[in-house]
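User: My notes are a mess, but here's the protein and zinc ion's SMILES. Can you give me a structure?
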Amino acid sequence: MTQAPHVAENLRICLACRRKSGRDEFWRVVRVWPSHEVQLDQGMGRSAYLCPNASCLKQAQRKDRLAKVLKARVPPEVYAALWTRLQVKGQGTSAQVDRRRTDEISTNL
Ligand SMILES: [Zn+2]
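Assistant: No problem, the inputs look usable. Here's the predicted complex:
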């Protein structure tokens, strides 16, 4: 009976599309304390979560939403690293997965 609230506590929200999911589903961007440097995946500090897909990354970048959520300047390298990840992921998996992702994006639009 106490299971539901516990699960909800472990959910993270994508800063672009507001989708809720477990933290393993998202990229984590961290404003490291106390240096305030923004980096990916590791570190203690203020965190933002983003779906690993092109539409959410684009949205986070275009409105500089990531910077607003983190209250820090996000260096272009951070965005570049995420785009690289997306490309590597796309090449590593089959074309089928790519096509399905495109369908998801067009449905959202
Ligand atoms: Zn998202």
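The two ends are 38 Å apart (CA to CA).
User: Great, I'll file this with my notes.
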